[in-house]
Amino acid sequence: MKNPYKIYLDNFFETINDLKHTTNRINKVLLKDVERYTKKEANFLSGTALIIGDWTGPTDNGWKKTFHTGIRKTTFKKNYASEIEKILSREFGLAFSQCYEALETLLKDFVYQKIQTDKYFKEKLNKEYSRESLKGGEDIFKMIKKASGKRFLKYSNDNNSNFKFSELFRIFSEVRHSITHSKGQLNSSKIFKNKYYKDLFEYLFPLNKLENDFIQLKFDYKSLNNLLNYLAEFGYQIFKILSEEDNYEWKI
């Protein structure tokens, strides 16, 4: 029987691979730019000022009048390399966040598919759900665990990477939240629950140490590439569990 979960997994993999491809190119181009403009004979100066208009202010014969906000930024040759490092870290963090969002979308698609095809699972939920009413974060993950039966705990406690699935998801979720809502500043107390959490976080995000109350998250292409693989493998693992539960072929 055709596996109805597979189409959602393929869409998820497409998103992951597209961002791997794009960020790899961005990394190469910008690092090459640093190499070019930090040579001894090179000249470099870049500046930007924020100029805006007042929508409810006077115009110049119908044309918008603009004014300087006083906000400006300048990058000099001497700090160009560090500026690019910050830019890449920010972009890689945003790429991770997008892929995490794709993982949540995948989990929602899996759960809704299960609701549509498994009346016993639907009865367990004690509530009617549309696809749009499914919430992300811990809510969707609890539903995934409920849909996964005993296999969830079995595979979480015994896998080749020693990844405990609930702890892994919590770390991914907190990091995504920090990137999206706090400009990449992570509150360590959200992660540091015990030694396993600390060790897992520092394994997943090797440029970051849980040594202070707040840390500014850092990424490079190597760590991002590994993270996107972990997200893809996590999604595949849930796909495998649900497929086994429902007697679908799961091998690719």
Give a brief description.
The chain has 252 residues and is mainly alpha-helical.
Defining traits:
single chain; 252 residues
Helix content: 55-70%
Overall 3D shape: globular
Number of helices: 8
> Biggest sheet, open or closed, and with what strands and sense?
2 strands, antiparallel
**Proportion of residues in extended strands:** 5-15%
Low-confidence stretches: none
Structural class: mainly alpha
Compute the average pLDDT. Answer: 95
Output the strand order for the largest sheet.
Answer: 1-4
Taken in chain order, the helices and strands follow as HEEEEHHHHHEHEH
Radius of gyration, taken over Cα atoms and rounded to an integer in Å: 23 Å
Distance between the termini: 15 Å
DSSP, total strands? 6
Question: Would you give an account of this structure?
Answer:
The chain is mainly alpha-helical. The chain contains eight helices and six strands, in the order αββββαααααβαβα. It has a two-stranded antiparallel sheet. Strands 2-3 form a two-stranded antiparallel ribbon. A two-stranded antiparallel ribbon has the order 5-6. α1 packs antiparallel against α2, α1 runs antiparallel to α8 and α2 packs parallel to α8. The longest helix is centred in the middle third of the chain and has 38 residues. The model has no long low-confidence stretch (mean pLDDT 95).
